[in-house]
């Protein structure tokens, strides 16, 4: 489905909108929704249709309606690792976030929906005296995104604590995979390869000491505040870690600390982060990323690969 101006698209696809209304209600559907409101970069043009389902059945029905109408769809968490095009996104954005964020703890087992914020799980695990999740508690993302990219920090990775993952394929079929079947690696899982949708996961933690857990979480929180540019919008680490190197160190040694394109800047606090200093566009960020890649390769013959994911109209 190519992009048309919204009145034409709406008129030609009223049947499609009506079907979505019947599934999730008008209050959970927005048209021409600015994606800058739904990414931590605070960048991005409008999504033609933006929906916020509450149940697996609703997600399933939305996916099947989109397939039947040949309308593209994209699944979004809280947008903490995304750069959305200034031109916006065609089709339907399915946000699995606040409306899809239930979780529970029984013994040392956490069962959570994909939209659950990692911080919420971390706080609850601490209160339940469960250790193993401290590394993830300060990552500003949802469980779904963390599972998809095997998020990691401070010596821990999601694969260390995942027992099973509940997924949906592009036809709307629900399936479950064990941790071993997820093919977890550095910032990788089978999810993107197979184009699965993460619905939730079961995590296995370990009994621990609440005071020790609190102390560790506090230490990691302070380390993040000290080392990361949390005062500006960003999508976290912009580049993957090249084998044998650190992206931030290479960028700093290439004399790019503070380098700026429009409203986008290499953070002066941590060169591995691109930040939105105000009014940055996706084009600013992309041009900055290309400049950094070129200069680092020219200087060190090392190719930097973006960790942030570019989506939307090109």
Topology readout:
Layout: H1 6-12, H2 14-24, E1 29-34, E2 46-51, H3 56-69, E3 73-76, E4 82-84, E5 89-95, E6 103-106, E7 109-113, H4 118-127, E8 130-131, H5 143-148, E9 152-153, E10 156-157, E11 162-168, E12 174-178, H6 190-194, E13 197-204, E14 206-207, H7 210-227, E15 234-237, H8 247-253, E16 260-261, E17 264-266, E18 273-276, H9 282-300, E19 309-311
Parallel strand pairs: 2-5, 3-5, 4-19
Antiparallel strand pairs: 1-2, 6-7, 7-13, 8-14, 9-10, 11-12, 11-13, 15-18, 16-17, 17-18
Helix pairs in contact: 2-3
Structural description of this entry:
The protein has 314 residues and is α+β, with helices and mostly antiparallel strands. The protein is built from nine helices and 19 strands. A five-stranded antiparallel β-sheet has the order 6-7-13-11-12. The longest helix has 19 residues, at 282-300. The mean pLDDT is 94.
Structure summary, number of beta strands: 19
Q: Counting H and I runs of at least 4 residues, what is the number of helices?
A: 9
Sketch the major β-sheet.
5 strands, antiparallel
- Determine the structural class based on helices, strands and strand pairing: alpha+beta
Average per-residue pLDDT, rounded, comes to 94
Q: Radius of gyration from the CA trace?
A: 20 Å
As a percent range, the share of helical residues equals: 25-40%
What's the overall geometry?
globular
What sequence of helices (H) and strands (E) makes up the elements? HHEEHEEEEEHEHEEEEHEEHEHEEEHE
Instruction: Extract low-pLDDT stretches.
Output: none
Beta-strand proportion: 25-35%
Going across the biggest sheet, name each strand in turn: 6-7-13-11-12
The N- and C-terminal alpha carbons lie at a distance of 14 Å
């Amino acid at each position: 489905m190519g992009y048309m101006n919204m009145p034409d698209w709406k008129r030609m696809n009223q049947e499609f909108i009506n079907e979505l209304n019947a599934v999730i209600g008008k209050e959970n559907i927005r048209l021409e929704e600015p994606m800058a409101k739904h990414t931590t970069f605070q960048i991005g043009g409008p999504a033609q249709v933006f929906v916020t389902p509450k149940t697996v059945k609703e997600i399933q029905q939305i996916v099947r309606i989109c397939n039947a109408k040949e309308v593209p769809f994209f699944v979004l968490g809280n947008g903490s690792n995304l750069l959305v095009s200034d031109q916006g996104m065609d089709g339907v954005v399915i946000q699995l976030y606040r409306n899809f964020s239930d979780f529970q703890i029984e013994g040392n087992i956490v069962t959570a929906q994909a939209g659950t914020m990692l911080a919420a799980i971390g706080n609850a695990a601490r209160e339940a005296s469960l250790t193993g999740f401290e590394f993830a508690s300060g990552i500003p993302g949802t469980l779904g995104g963390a599972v998809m990219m095997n998020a990691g920090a401070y010596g821990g990775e999601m694969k260390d604590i995942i027992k099973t993952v509940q997924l949906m394929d592009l036809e709307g079929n629900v399936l479950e995979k064990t941790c071993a079947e997820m093919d977890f690696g550095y910032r990788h899982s089978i999810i993107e390869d197979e184009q699965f949708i993460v619905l939730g996961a079961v995590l296995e933690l370990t009994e621990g000491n609440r005071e020790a857990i609190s102390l560790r979480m506090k230490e990691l929180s302070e380390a993040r505040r000290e080392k990361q540019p949390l005062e500006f919008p960003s999508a976290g680490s912009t580049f993957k870690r090249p084998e044998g190197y650190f992206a931030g160190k290479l960028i700093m040694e290439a004399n790019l600390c503070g380098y700026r394109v429009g409203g986008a800047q290499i953070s002066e606090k941590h060169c591995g982060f691109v930040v939105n200093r105000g009014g940055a566009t996706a084009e600013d960020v992309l041009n900055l990323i290309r400049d950094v890649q070129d200069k680092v390769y020219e200087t060190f013959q090392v190719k930097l690969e973006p960790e942030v994911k570019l989506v939307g109209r090109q």
